[in-house]
From TrEMBL:
Pfam families noted in UniProt: peroxidase
Essential cofactor(s): Ca(2+); heme b
Protein name: Plant heme peroxidase family profile domain-containing protein
Domain Plant heme peroxidase family profile residues, every copy: 26-193
Catalytic residue list: 67
Catalytic activities: 2 a phenolic donor + H2O2 = 2 a phenolic radical donor + 2 H2O
Taxonomic classification: Eukaryota, Viridiplantae, Streptophyta, Embryophyta, Tracheophyta
List of residues binding Ca(2+): 68, 71, 73, 75, 77, 89
Molecular functions per Gene Ontology: heme binding; lactoperoxidase activity; metal ion binding; peroxidase activity
Gene behind this protein: LOC123091508
Length: 193
């Protein structure tokens, strides 16, 4: 049990470090308190049943957040599909046939849109869904600061170069995590997803 708590704490610290990157001065925990007070309830209404059906989905959501933050910051660029003039990140080697849970995030976004249309960014939905997944699965909670803006671009090359592929050795993993300001302890926690 103590080892599980240490891993959970490491995971939280790693996610907080990633999520609070360069725009931390603009983020706040009460960002939607007036514009969408029912946001958290809406997130839970779609997320919790999905995790209850398949518990592994919770870890998948955390992994989506981790992969999103490693490319252009925590901006939901991972959620963008390929389109004319836009090559998305979903089909990059570290994500293709590996990243999952997109349909759950779509359901969460739909629930939030029903509650308060056009208010909450997908980037914030992904961040809060990651935290709520950890909590729902029995892990600790942390304060999620919000106010992220959604990206209108994606970086296939960024995903290819910044997200550790499944074939990464220790030196490559350590280097890629260090580039994000994360330690080997953070790497172990996030690589286990």
């Amino acid at each position: 049990m103590a080892a599980r708590a240490i891993v959970a704490l490491s995971l939280i610290l790693a996610l907080v470090a990633i999520a609070s990157g360069g725009a931390s001065a603009q983020l706040s925990s009460g960002f939607y308190s007036r514009s969408c007070p029912g946001m958290l309830k809406a997130v839970r209404s779609a997320l919790h049943p999905a995790i209850a059906r398949e518990r592994r989905v919770g870890a998948s959501i955390v992994r989506l957040f981790f992969h999103d933050c490693f490319v252009q910051g925590c901006d939901a660029s991972l959620l963008l599909d390929d389109a004319p003039g836009l090559r998305g990140e979903k089909n990059a080697t570290p994500n293709k046939n590996s990243a999952r849970g997109f349909e759950v995030i779509d359901a969460v976004k739909a629930a939030v849109e029903e509650c308060c249309p056009g208010v909450v960014s997908c980037a914030d939905i992904l961040a809060i869904a990651a935290e709520e997944s950890v909590v729902f699965l029995g892990g600790p909670s942390w304060e999620v600061k919000m106010g992220r803006r959604d990206s209108t671009t994606a970086s296939f090359n960024g995903a290819e170069n910044n997200i550790p592929p499944p074939t990464s050795g220790l030196a490559n993993l350590t280097s890629l995590f260090a580039a994000q300001g994360l330690s080997q302890k953070d790497m172990v926690a996030l690589s286990g997803l």
